[in-house]
Amino acid sequence: MKPAQSHLSLVLNGDKFWKYRLERDPTEGGKRRLKLQGKELISVPLEVFDLEELQVLEMSPERESCLTYRMDLVPREIGQLRNLSILNLDTNELKVIPAEIGALKNLERLTLSNNFLSFLPKEFGRLQKLTSLHLANNAFREFPIQICQMRNLTFLDASDNKIRTIPPSVENLSKLETLLLFFNRLESLPETFSNLRSLHTLWLGKNKLRTLPRKFGNLVNLEWGDNQCSSNFEGNPLENPPLEICRGGPLEIKQYFAAWSDEGYLISYAAAF
């Protein structure tokens, strides 16, 4: 008589191995989570994309010893994971994101920081449930216009890139609360930027800004002070208004611009106080 196989060995046979790897993530409300690491990032097993119940997928090396293995291509099959709500792909060697990512209609959080991305596919704009997007430390020279279609976005980190301009359609991000754009090459902001009334935290330090939109002072919900969440413009060659005015926050900025006539010259800034 053949010895009976253990339950574990049965589970590990074939595709069931990946179902066995699924775990409930207590930090994400018990969502079904799978973490790939090591050599799995070099060649992602296609069986992973058959896990219809998967909600959280982590494909980021987490320790220095794991950095030898990094993903350089996201399989097109990623679009099959229709129930995915969190996708972590940071700290890899990605240069492109497949168009199929646009099929992840339930995605709420996406981390793509610390890669080599310079553009996003047009299908990216279909991620209408996305609330949190991390794009820091990539190679973007332009602000991806697709982001402006994400009307439910509340958090965006696009710091440490080479972005020079922000499109006027950024005003569509009416729910945006945190916007991190420090260490870029921004030279100006569109006038429509002043319509982002939900902003609480805005980091624009270490850019090339010389002027601000005249209605910037309307962003009255911005945190301004000495805490780590405070908005700031440090490291910009600001002239209009000067950096010392900007340090005073939206109210002082509003008063500064109120002192200008329609022709564009300063009547009397001191009279505004």
TrEMBL record:
Matches recorded under PROSITE patterns: LRR (PS51450)
InterPro entries, per database record: Leu-rich_rpt, Leu-rich_rpt_4, Leu-rich_rpt_typical-subtyp, LRR_dom_sf, LRR_domain-containing
UniProt keyword Ribosomal protein, yes or no: no
Keywords of this entry: Leucine-rich repeat, Repeat
GO CC term (a single one): cytoplasm
Protein name according to UniProt: Malignant fibrous histiocytoma-amplified sequence 1-like
Keyword flag Flavoprotein: no
Organism encoding this protein: Acipenser ruthenus (Sterlet sturgeon)
PANTHER family: MALIGNANT FIBROUS HISTIOCYTOMA-AMPLIFIED SEQUENCE 1 HOMOLOG (PTHR48051:SF55), PTHR48051
